[in-house]
Amino acid sequence: MNRIVLITGATSGIGRACAYRFAAEKDFLILTGRRKSRLDELGSALQAEFNTRVLTLCFDVRNRVEVEHSLSTLPASWQAVDILVNNAGLAVGLNPLQEGETDDWERMIDTNVKGLLYVSRTIVPGMVARRKGHVINIGSIAGKEVYPNGNVYCATKFAVDALTKGLRMDTVKAGIKVTQIAPGAVETEFSMVRFKGDADRAGGVYKGFVPLSGEDVADAVFYVCSLPDHVNINDLVIMPTAQASATLIDKSL
User: Fold this and answer.
1) Which among 20, 118, 147, 153 is annotated as catalytic?
2) Which residues contact 225 (CB under 8 A, 6 or more apart)?
3) For a FRET experiment, which of 52, 189, 194, 231 has its CA 20 to 30 Å from that of 97?
4) Low-confidence residues of the chain: pLDDT under 70
5) What is the C-alpha to C-alpha distance for residues 122 and 1, in angstroms, rounded to an integer?
């Protein structure tokens, strides 16, 4: 049976890799993102390659009105979402708290925390009513341990960790599965966004070791969604072999 999978932040990185992973299994996809041209291109590519159904929705998870309008008016055949992958998220800046830029803080809080809440608040009630569904929150090793200059980004990912645990408790009587996937270093657009387009600085993050790819994380997401009904993975931390903690990475290659 084809599952309906909703993936936020689907136009790049982990979200895009998840879209390909689920499409390969003929699941039906609702893909969201802010960049319409990328969304349209991705949707067309997946339909052509895998002959599956894809619905693309262009909106910003930071905008509650856009989220509610887009997700509460889904066509009838798309409303019974089986899997929600709350992937949209980002880091902006890497400064000591006392030197931080408040615009960066707002962007991270609005995307990583409020965006996740807005989407979940719109989709999860339907899962509870149907007594069926699985919510995957993409967290981070930054939600497990704080590192220097990570302050607000780490705080948002600690919030994702707490919200995942809270949602698990709030929906357990309805039989809803809730999982956090917390990756370490993943080579995506993450560092380019964090360093605001500074390619040299971003590229240096991944030199000297083999980081995770978006596909590696997508495989973990797909795995936790493929277990028997009575099995739930509450929390899964995934890191490159060369990484032992948020700040300890062997870059001897």
Assistant:
1) 153
2) 3, 83, 134, 136
3) 189
4) 1
5) 24
Look at residue 26 in the predicted model and tell me its pLDDT.
96
The reported pLDDT for the residue numbered 19 is: 98
Quick one: pLDDT at residue 252? 95
Structure tokens of 20? Answer: 């390909």
Q: Which two tokens stand for residue 40?
A: 């349209």
Q: Is the pTM of this model over 0.90?
A: yes
> Nearest Cα to 21, choosing from 225, 190, 191?
225
Q: Residue 54: which residues within 8 A CB-CB, separation 6 or more?
A: 23, 28, 29, 30, 31, 43, 46, 47
**Which among 68, 65, 47, 77 has a CA at the least distance from the CA of 123?**
68
Class of CATH domain 4-238 = alpha beta
DSSP H stretches of helix in the chain: 13-23, 36-50, 64-72, 102-108, 116-130, 151-171, 190-194, 199-204, 214-224
Tens digits of per-residue pLDDT, 104-140? 999 999 999 999 999 999 999 999 999 999 999 999 9
Residue 253: predicted pLDDT: 87
153 belongs to the catalytic site = yes
Contact (Cβ atoms closer than 8 angstroms) between residue 2 and residue 51:
no
